[in-house]
Amino acid sequence: MTALKLLILFPLITIKIDASVVINRYDDECVLDPALVAEISSYENVTKHIMDQIRNNYGKTMYQEYTHFIDKFGARPSGSWILENSINHMINLTRQHGLNDVTTEELEVPHWVRIFEYGLMLQPRAKKIVILGFGSSVSTPRGGILAEAIVVKSFAELEALDRTKVQGKIVVFNEPYVSYGETVIYRTLGASKAARKGAVATLVRSITPFSIYAPHTGAQYYENNVTKIPTAAITLEDADLLQRLQNEGEKIVLQIQMYYTEDTKKSRNTLVDLKGRVNPEKLVIVSGHIDSWDVGEGAMDDGGGMMISWFVPVVLNTLNLKPRRTVRAILWTAEEPGLIGAQAYLKQHKNELDKINFIMESDEGTFQPLGLDVAGSKKTRCIVQEVLKQFAPINKMENSGAPGSDIVLFIKQNVPGASLLNRNERYYWFHHSEGDTMVVQNMTNVVECAAFWAAFSYVIADLSVDLPRH
Ligand SMILES: *[C@@H]1O[C@H](CO)[C@@H](O)[C@H](O)[C@H]1NC(C)=O
Ligand SMILES: *[C@@H]1O[C@H](CO)[C@@H](O)[C@H](O)[C@H]1NC(C)=O
Ligand SMILES: *[C@@H]1O[C@H](CO)[C@@H](O)[C@H](O)[C@H]1NC(C)=O
Ligand SMILES: *[C@@H]1O[C@H](CO)[C@@H](O)[C@H](O)[C@H]1NC(C)=O
Ligand SMILES: [Zn+2]
């Protein structure tokens, strides 16, 4: 795609980059009122107290409850009864911890169910091809699809092909992994692009840098007016194999069968409040999503982030630390099919956005915590940076411009916010695959994330000043 096209399609990204350059330049020159600096440093004993209590005491119980939650419910796909049961469990757990201010907000969510999938290479030799359909994929016609495959490395390569080369075939995308954010477009839009060229199905190299023969699922979207064709992930191993066979001049014939059902169900966002002592109407939101994909157990995505966020109001209440503003944990529902829970919350509360002082999210792992990816005005970022000083070495501050997943919707509405930075370089190895289980987690790290998450949000919720917007 040309730079000009990018500019037209994604003008916001251009603005974002410009803004981040400016903000970065001024970050070194944060000049805060000395009284505010003194006030922030006066929290050092409290933050140490919160973190020590979680590290040495309450964190272990939280981790046991987290493990029990994952063991008991496992995968919690949008629209499933097991997701609803897991929400009930968290409501009960909140009350058991002595916090009764827990409410839910109902909404409609997609309920896409994987029934049956099967993939086989017939030519040049018989080999099983493990496939894992993408959320919202249509089924194959009864009896499946038997077709020749054509492998491409990019959308550009697909576009350059003559339509007759693609018509009636299964398009295999073997795109190189650059980063999740850049490469995921082959999962989300691959089917639509290939359908416009006349393809009958697509198989997409899993969006991960590493594989031991596991496919990775995720959401995909059909563009308007496009023939909906079945679309599934394949492993890196098979994507490379199919590429080599094509390069070696072999004709590749595949057979796939996929069957899904789709309807909608009711689900709920869960709100856990520790009401503010002075300004209960003002909110500091900490959040993660409670739903997961139907493969693996959603331990990492996003069981860990959901749990440490739920724990913030709960543990502050236990420690008898009531900040000035309300601390609200939100357990988003139906993040995976496309931020459905967060969209509903935004719609329902759009006239109260000015009451959100800060919004936080953990949805990229709860490995060793490093700091925050912060979006907000220069002054807000300066205040956050000053608060982070007392958490060294958990004091890294980044400025991607769009931190988080669900909370990006709020960031776009000018609400300041942050997502948890952690040592998650292996996150996408397991993400949306059967590999997302408790084995990936480390208690010490999760507890450390929880300690930082609770202590940091306490300070923001208790400061005498609101975080200023642009
Ligand atoms: C921290 O110190 C402040 C005064 O500097 C005091 O008011 C507060 O009670 C202390 N908090 C804890 C948890 O020790
Ligand atoms: C939650 O508590 C209610 C009332 O005590 C109980 O009926 C229900 O079975 C519990 N649900 C879960 C999922 O723990
Ligand atoms: C889709 O097709 C309809 C009717 O064929 C047309 O009116 C509409 O503009 C199309 N929309 C897009 C996004 O192409
Ligand atoms: C968990 O992480 C801690 C701290 O990084 C490390 O010392 C420990 O060895 C890890 N435990 C396991 C089982 O990997
Ligand atoms: Zn997630």
UniProtKB/TrEMBL annotation:
Keywords: Carboxypeptidase, Endoplasmic reticulum, Glycoprotein, Golgi apparatus, Hydrolase, Lysosome, Metal-binding, Metalloprotease, Protease, Secreted, Signal, Zinc, Zymogen. Residues 1-19 form the signal peptide. Residues 269-455 form the Peptidase M28 domain. Belongs to the peptidase M28 family. One of its GO terms (biological process) is peptide catabolic process. GO terms for cellular component: endoplasmic reticulum; extracellular space; Golgi apparatus; lysosome. This is Carboxypeptidase Q. It is found in: Endoplasmic reticulum; Golgi apparatus; Lysosome; Secreted. The keyword Transmembrane helix does not apply. It holds the Pfam family Peptidase_M28.
